[in-house]
Amino acid sequence: MRVGVVGTGISGLTLVDALADRGIDVVAVESRAEAGGIVRSQRMDGRVVELGPQRLRLTPSIESLVDKLGLNEQLRIGDDDQPLYIYHNDALRVAPLSAREAVTTSLLSPLGKLRILAEPLTAPAKPDETVDEFLVRRFGRQAARRYMGPLYSGLYGTDPREMLHEYSLGRALDNAGVGRSLLWWVAKRVVEGRAAPPICTFDDGLGTLTDALYEAHSDVIDLDTAAVEIRGHNGSVDVDADGGFEIVTDAGSETVDEVVVTTPAPTSAKLVEPLDTDLAATLERFRYNQITMVFLDSDFDREGIGALVPPDGDLPISGTTWNASFLDRDRLFTCYVDPNSDPELPNRTDEDVGELAADAFEELTGAAATPIGVHTWTPGMPAYDGSWTAMDDIKPPEGLRFCANFVGRPGIPGRIRSAKRIAREIGETE
User: Fold this and answer.
1) Any idea which of 40-44, 301-305, 337-341 has the lowest mean pLDDT?
2) 230 in Cβ contact with 259 (< 8 Å)
3) Could you tell me whether strands 91-94 and 84-88 are parallel, antiparallel, or unpaired per DSSP bridges?
């Protein structure tokens, strides 16, 4: 069996690695000059800057990869015993991520805190319920609007009022093994002493992980090779005619028995359109949010993971990551510009966007900041809004699979788990 992989972000790289471990012949193509996808580290102004995820959790799957690739000496454990803040009523307030913080936080009133305790008594999610509606009904308006909603929207850049519970939070809770009550699930983990894995990075950034994966398999990965379309074997538009697939690239073609596409939905739609027009139309339904990140230099020295800004706030940012504090990155802070804050945002220069973020950071923290870089991802992050009903309509032909965040959970650990699962499924079909 020969498997083709389109795209070498963390999903594609992990998939190549897992297939190779099973002795399966694999070839991967990547349009860019470097592998890694959105996991990309650079040096700006002498500092390590993450253009994508800012850190990750040292889950068992990550730890296994680190050991396998010999990266232990480069691993850097962050200090996540620090507060996360939410900007409310023009002030930074501690988000209640622990029992102690739940009692002491000024984010919620005494009645708002008591209302949370009624959560086990409320009904489960309703059909077509939004994330906001679900959270308000289960935890009360204060906790939903001031805390849980911003916490969740900060992950995806989408207003919880536009996110369907079934296709976003609901699936995340199911994957985490949360049953009838989220509150009881949290309490059980506390009693069992189950703490979240520590946050981590590498001395030279998260790109260390993807660079190592690429180097381990560079002989089967073709960089600067853009996939143009996917067809059935011998160019047929009917995959059942001869079996197998042809990955047409700008440098030629690759014939494979199975193919796994790891690119975002819009790119994936163009690739499969010659093979299956209905499938392409389904993939085109997914909406994404542009991600614009501004990297700031500041002497702000408060301890913390960062701060989230509710979507109905007055600031043009959705949150900040305080890399200087929890990862000891010298004077470095990352701001996320709210894509809905300004309809003219796509037309603004990086200089304008940088100043906008610096001004917002100063209003948020009281400390001045200087922009050192701006980076924008398009299409960016899945919106997980109403368009995500398309999940139910993805019916690829046999032998074609998707390993991307529009069919699974985002985040590096989630992408690694999905890739390993698909490699296992392919191995079982040999």
Assistant:
1) 337-341
2) yes
3) antiparallel
Query: For every residue of 11-65, which 3-state class applies, written as one string?
Result: HHHHHHHHHHHCCCEEEEECCCCCCECCCCEEEECCEEEECCCCCEECCHHHHHH
**Please, what CATH class does the domain formed by 96-192 belong to?**
mainly alpha
Q: How many CB atoms lie within 10 A of CB 299?
A: 9
Pick the CATH number of 2-41+59-75+204-286+385-429 from 3.50.30.30, 3.10.20.310, 3.90.1010.10, 3.50.50.60: 3.50.50.60
Contacts of 430 (CB under 8 A, 6+ apart): 1, 24
Instruction: Return the DSSP state at 377.
Output: E
- Residue 172 scores a pLDDT above 90: no
Asked if 40 and 183 count as a contact pair (C-beta separation under 8 A), the reply is: no
DSSP state of 393: G
A 10 A CB-CB count for 146 gives 22
* DSSP tag of 126: P
- Tokens for 54? 């800012």
